[in-house]
Amino acid sequence: LPEPARIAEFTLRVLTQRHDLDGETVLITAGPTREPLDPVRFISNRSSGKMGYALAEAASERGARVLLVSGPVQLDPPAGVELMRVQTAREMRDAVMERLAESSIIIKTAAVADYHVANVPKQKVKKTAMRLSLELDPTPDILAEVGAEIERRATGQLLIGFAAETENVVAEAKRKLQAKKCDMVVANDVSADGTGFESDENEVVLAMRTGEVAPLGRAAKRVLADQILDHAMQLRLALHKSR
Fold first, then answer.
1. CB neighbours of residue 139 within 10 Å
2. Cys bridge to 225: 46, 58, 90, 93, which one at CB 3.0-4.6 A?
3. Catalytic residues
4. Angle 192-197-201 (CA atoms, 0-180°, nearest 5)?
5. pLDDT tens track for 203-238
6. Measured between alpha carbons, how far is 62 from 68 in angstroms, rounded to an integer?
7. In DSSP terms, which residues pair with 213 in a beta bridge?
């Protein structure tokens, strides 16, 4: 059996379950990407995918159809979501753009690798005593491309980005909000102890297109997922009224 605390948490969610996302299609990216260096090695990061999977679970339980594009993680997908597994940034970009038109809310939680090797060797690179230099090219900026596409088509889709920072968290969230044409950016300090990558808890700040900045106190990622969705729904209503 699951731990008693987990059973109690699930029971409470069932008793207080909302269906405010009925009719919505929520596209979520989660986890890291892996960019191959050769057939054996790759560039990646410490993202566990827990925040994205928590958001997928929360959105599904609130009535949404959930499309989850996931990099390589050690997590079971939430019940009822449509899972698309990818490895590289290019694969993630293609999966997102393929399903973008059918999505009303897009949440880009994934920690996409920033660089990749353009021409990956077909054979394993052998270790020698010499220094090895790598020529790395930028990976596709999926969030920026999605933001530009939504703006160009004026679809009214809600775009939420994530920012993993080690300093100037609020300033970087605001910068990313503008640069990527997001409606909301969820930012957190990944250098803090006990939160961020690989942790079951997080502490984030929300920067929104309305100018509001909302810090969310430290909590379990599943709890924060519902709080983020609450703010997202309120934000969409505010943006709709302002149009």
1. 19
2. 58
3. 45
4. 70
5. 999 999 999 999 999 999 999 999 999 999 999 999
6. 15
7. 207
